[in-house]
């Protein structure tokens, strides 16, 4: 689901990047027109109908599903063909943990952790350490909490400076799955 969310988000950014590259190369026919869509990473904090708000809600749904999962939290290096989720059917299986950071929105993000050092040999169904399981990373947009301290004249007499909360969009690297390499 996380990969689906990333793919969907990428589909929003790619068409915009293509339009920008065409305009930069001068291939556009006719007069240049101003962009009609707002950039994908620009959103209003109070607007519940933005692509970023939808993206954050989908991550919250994934975290909720992970916390409420009735499937065993098995951390063994083995394939489980009875489960429908690809992370347990992979030759490089992984489990999800919750990456928590209180200074980030979303605060909780599912993150993959490889269950094997090696990979599962599909013929013996045993771990083969001549190969290696490695995480697959993706960069996800998050909002990071920044604390801006106002000018010296505005701070409290007690010596503590007042902090004005401000969020900034940054890209964070998160493991989204595992793969097998030689």
From TrEMBL:
The GO molecular function terms of this record are: cytokine activity
Its signal peptide is: 1-17
Q: Which InterPro entries match?
A: Cystine-knot_cytokine (IPR029034), IL-17_chr (IPR020440), IL-17_fam (IPR010345)
Superkingdom field: Eukaryota
**Where in the cell is the protein located?**
Secreted
Quote the Gene3D superfamilies the UniProt record gives: Cystine-knot cytokines
Keywords in alphabetical order, please. Answer: Cytokine, Secreted, Signal
The main place the protein resides is secreted
Cellular component per GO? Answer: extracellular space
Annotated GO biological processes are: inflammatory response
Family to which the UniProt record says this protein belongs: Belongs to the IL-17 family.
Protein name per Swiss-Prot or TrEMBL: Interleukin-17B
Its source organism is Phoenicopterus ruber ruber
């Amino acid at each position: 689901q996380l990969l689906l969310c990333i793919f969907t988000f990428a589909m929003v950014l790619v068409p915009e990047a293509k339009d920008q590259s065409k305009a930069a190369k001068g291939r556009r026919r006719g007069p240049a027109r101003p962009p009609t869509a707002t950039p994908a990473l620009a959103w209003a904090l109070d607007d519940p109908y933005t692509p970023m708000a939808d993206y954050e809600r989908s991550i919250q749904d994934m975290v909720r599903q992970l916390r409420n999962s009735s499937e065993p939290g098995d951390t063994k290096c083995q394939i489980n063909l009875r489960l429908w989720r690809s992370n347990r059917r992979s030759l490089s299986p992984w489990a999800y943990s919750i990456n928590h950071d209180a200074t980030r929105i979303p605060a909780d993000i599912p993150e993959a952790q490889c269950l094997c050092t090696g990979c599962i040999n599909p013929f013996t169904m045993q771990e083969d350490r001549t190969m290696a399981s490695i995480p697959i990373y993706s960069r996800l947009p998050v909002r990071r909490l920044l604390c801006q301290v106002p000018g010296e004249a505005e701070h409290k007499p007690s010596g503590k400076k007042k902090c004005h909360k401000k969020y900034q969009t940054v890209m964070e690297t998160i493991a989204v799955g595992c793969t097998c390499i030689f």
